[in-house]
Amino acid sequence: MPRKTKTTPKKTSAKKPKKVEEMSQTHGKEERPLYSTLEQIWGDTGLSKYGTFDENDYLKELENMTKADIQAHANKLGLVPIDNRKELVKRLIKEFVYHKSRYSTIPADIQINNITSNLSPEVRKILSEGK
Questions:
Q1: What global pTM score does this model have?
Q2: Which domain holds residue 93?
């Protein structure tokens, strides 16, 4: 018959309970700003593609480019470079505005203020019942 081994209970150090003020509670809410693309999560701010988010600056940059430069720029962005300069500039600006909208989000407090500022007192009363 095998020999029985004696085990001794482990000693636990007596910890003092934390005070409520010292404890922190998790709520599961993301504290960082909202992201709309994977590039934003990885740290891309969106400036690397165009160098600016100001539409006027981008227009000035396009005006200073030659036709060949604009076609090369469009090719770099993934657009088909067409021969008509005005149409190509329109397409580039449209793509720029789309790119800018992907990287800019409306803060939540502005969205709420714009919605509730136009409501009548009766509607506000009905909506406040759900709180």
A1: 0.50
A2: 45-105
